[in-house]
Every structure is written in C-alpha cells, then in structure tokens.
Specification:
434 Repressor (Amino-terminal Domain); about 120 residues; mainly alpha; 2 domains
Length: about 120
C-alpha cells in the first residue's frame, strides 16, 4: 500500500479509481485500511478545493420560504410589520436578536445561517 497526499485533480482521480477498486474490501484488512485512508484524503481534498460558502441570512430565509411555500406576509409574525419584513429581505436592515430567535424557533432555520458568516 503506497499512499501519498492528494495535491491536484490528477491525484484525486487516481485515488478515486483506487477507492472504486477497494469498495468491497472488508474492514480490519490491509485493503480496508487503505480504503479508509484514501477516502479520508479525498474528503479533505474536496473540502479544501470545493468548499461551499455559508448563505447570508436573507438567502437562508428565502430558501426556507421556498421549501415551506411561504411568502413575505407569512414572515410578519416572526419579524414584525410588513415594512420591517421588506427592509430585512431587501437587505436595508439586519435581523434583530428577537427576529433570529423567532425565525429559528418557528421556521427551524439554523442559528448559524441567521447570524451569517464571520467577516
């Protein structure tokens, strides 16, 4: 078993081909160990190369609205008046702590998505 770091897409492709060949390997065998190590390396490489940025809070709210079939009027109980909803959704006003708590509790939007990514 010769394992080396994955530094580019060619290394990744080679590792994926080897993983495919090892898919039926049993755990606690040399082949099973090789499969586990290669899968870990590929996972780390892909997280580094193809990372997905966290959504901003408004995008997270819009996504949940789409999932639940909601419109802006449905947000009023959680965010306040119609004008307040409009200000937040048009990014002219940030979410207050009370809004974040209410949206999280009632629409099950993850807190980290409502707080937003670190700058």
């Amino acid at each position: 078993m010769i394992i080396k770091p994955i530094r580019n897409s060619s290394d990744q492709e080679s590792a994926l081909k080897r993983i495919e060949a090892l898919m039926s390997a049993r755990t606690d065998t040399t082949e099973g160990d090789e499969l586990e190590v290669l899968a870990t390396l590929v996972d780390a490489y892909e997280k580094e190369q193809y990372s997905i940025d966290a959504p901003n809070p408004v995008d997270a709210i819009k996504f949940r609205m789409e999932q639940m079939g909601l419109d802006r009027k449905d947000l009023e109980p959680f965010m306040g008046s119609r004008s307040r909803v409009s200000e937040v959704m048009n990014k002219r006003r940030g979410l207050s702590l009370a809004m974040i708590r209410s949206l999280h509790k009632n629409l099950d939007i993850p807190l980290d998505a409502l707080i937003g990514p670190e700058s």
